[in-house]
């Protein structure tokens, strides 16, 4: 028996259904985009949705939009006048992203920015209740320092791909720049007395961090 395949199927069958427009976005991303595995997908999308429902943020910052699956998943959980600012380096993805944000009815909830994260974040005149990292893994430590002062006390950072296909514990992968970035980030967060953190082993690993002060 292919245990992983069957357990993943079981998980999917016992998780709330994927919206039709998100299924379509998943399919179009796989057909048209390089590295479609970067898409969050059904299970992770539902986890982000549920965490957002629990945290009830008024403002979210996302680093790494890709084609918008995670932004839409978070956006579907927003209440009232809450908004998302999402940043993506690859502006060639903007047509797909904007198309599906509109299909999801979230055009007034999600603001897309294209360009360098380190230029755009300081220009945002806002503080955030929730920040989601899913961009260049080499830069996770720098992202942490960049956004920390913009995160409200009691706010959360969720960082994706924290296990990096298990490379974080593989001695043969320690010289890979992306792996080194994630290891440095994990160690930085774990040693930071200003936060509480837990690493969830779901999918490729997700770190949830709460800012205490």
Task: Describe it.
This protein is an alpha/beta fold. It has a single domain (3-211), classed as 3-Layer(aba) Sandwich (Rossmann fold). It has eight helices and seven strands. The protein has helices at residues 3-13, 20-32, 41-55, 69-75, 94-103, 117-123, 140-148, 177-190, and strands spanning 59-63, 83-88, 110-114, 128-133, 151-160, 195-200, 206-211. The chain has a seven-stranded mixed β-sheet, with helices on both faces. A hairpin with a 5-residue loop joins strand 6 (195-200) and strand 7 (206-211). Helix 3 (41-55) packs parallel to helix 4 (69-75). The longest helix has 15 residues, at 41-55. It starts with a helix and ends with a strand. The model has no long low-confidence stretch (mean pLDDT 94).
Report a brief summary of the structure.
40% of the residues lie in helices and 21% in strands.
Order of helices and strands: HHHEHEHEHEHEHEE
Task: Give me the side-by-side strand order of the main sheet.
Answer: 3-2-1-4-5-7-6
In the residues, how many domains can be counted? 1
Q: Kindly, what is the distance between the CA atoms of the first and last residues, rounded to a whole number of angstroms?
A: 49 Å
| Rg, Å, rounded | 17 Å
CATH topology: Rossmann fold
Describe the largest sheet.
7 strands, mixed
The low-confidence runs, each spanning 5 or more residues with pLDDT under 50, are none
CATH class: Alpha Beta
Q: Mean pLDDT score, rounded?
A: 94
- Secondary structure category: alpha/beta
% residues in beta strands? 15-25%
* Name of the CATH architecture: 3-Layer(aba) Sandwich
């Amino acid at each position: 028996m292919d245990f992983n395949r069957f357990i993943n199927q079981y998980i999917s069958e016992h998780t709330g259904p994927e919206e039709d427009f998100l299924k379509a976005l998943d399919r179009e991303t796989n057909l048209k985009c390089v590295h479609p595995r970067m898409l969050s997908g059904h299970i992770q999308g539902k986890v982000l949705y549920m965490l957002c429902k629990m945290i009830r943020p008024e403002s979210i910052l996302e680093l790494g939009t890709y084609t918008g699956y995670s932004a839409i998943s978070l956006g579907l959980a927003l209440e009232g006048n809450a908004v998302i600012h999402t940043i993506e380096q690859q502006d060639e993805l903007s047509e797909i992203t904007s198309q599906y944000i509109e299909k999801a009815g979230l055009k007034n909830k999600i603001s897309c920015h294209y360009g360098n994260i380190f230029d755009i974040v300081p220009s945002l005149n806002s503080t955030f209740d929730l920040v989601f990292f899913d961009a260049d893994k080499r830069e996770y430590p720098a992202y942490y320092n960049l956004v920390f002062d913009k995160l409200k006390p009691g706010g959360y950072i969720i960082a994706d791909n924290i296990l990096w296909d298990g490379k974080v514990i593989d001695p043969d992968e320690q010289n890979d720049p992306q792996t080194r970035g994630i290891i440095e980030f994990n160690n930085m967060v774990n040693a930071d007395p200003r936060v509480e953190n837990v690493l969830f082993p779901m999918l490729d690993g997700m770190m949830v961090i709460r800012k205490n002060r």
